[in-house]
Amino acid sequence: MTQSIPENALILVADGRKGIFFRSHGKIEDLSLSEESRLSPQDLLDDGPSGSRPEEQSPKQTDEATFAKQLANTLFKMKESGAYSHLALVLDPQTLGQLRDAMHKTVADSVFTTLTKDLTNHSTSDIASALKAHIQK
After folding, report:
1. Kind of pairing, strands 32-39 and 87-91?
2. Is residue 5, in this structure, part of any structural domain at all?
3. Angle CA(53)–CA(54)–CA(60) in degrees, nearest 5?
4. Is residue 80 a part of any domain in this protein?
5. How far apart are CA 71 and CA 14, in angstroms?
6. pLDDT by residue, tens only, the chain of 137 residues
7. 2 in a domain, yes or no?
8. Structural domain range at position 118
9. How many angstroms separate the CA atoms of 30 and 101, rounded?
10. Can you give the pTM of this predicted structure?
């Protein structure tokens, strides 16, 4: 049975350095995405990552973990304001793990699919195609 993508679902495509929010349009056969906004790391030195970090963690890894926490906070605020009901995550494995650790339960409950792949530097049509292929598996 093929899963579908809900109309107007929020699609987050992110890595440890940037996040792009899209909206889904159309049925799975003719899926298209429209870019809604972008998020980049803010105040990394003042914010810090969630939880304790291993001593051997590099500054880059700490910054990426902090950004994952910022993404989780943004998703929670958006969820609480009613900005989305359904969420798809398209993230590299490292960011996905960090985001899951920081994600609120209401956000996690709205995730309908997860694609573990770094597509932040791909075109919107490439992202739509990868998501469509993932859903149709």
Report:
1. unpaired
2. no
3. 70
4. yes
5. 9
6. 456 889 999 999 999 899 999 999 988 888 999 999 999 887 655 555 555 555 676 767 777 888 898 999 999 999 999 999 999 999 999 999 999 989 999 999 999 999 999 999 999 999 999 999 999 87
7. no
8. 10-135
9. 33
10. 0.87
User: What 3-state DSSP class applies to 34?
Assistant: strand
- String of b and e for 84-108 (b: at least 16 CB within 10 Å)? bebbbbbbbebbbebbbebbeeebe
d(Cα 102, Cα 106) in Å, to the nearest integer? 12
What is the Cα gyration radius of the chain?
15
Q: What is the CATH number of the domain that holds 99?
A: 3.30.420.60
Q: Name the maximum alpha-carbon separation found in the chain.
A: 48
* Number of compact structural domains in the chain: 1
Q: At what angle do helices 59-80 and 93-102 cross, to 10 degrees?
A: 50
**Residue 14 is which amino acid?**
A
3, part of any domain: no
Distance CA 27, CA 46 (A): 43
Three-state DSSP string of 61-82: HHHHHHHHHHHHHHHHHHHHCC
User: Residue 13 is encoded by which pair of tokens?
Assistant: 């495509």
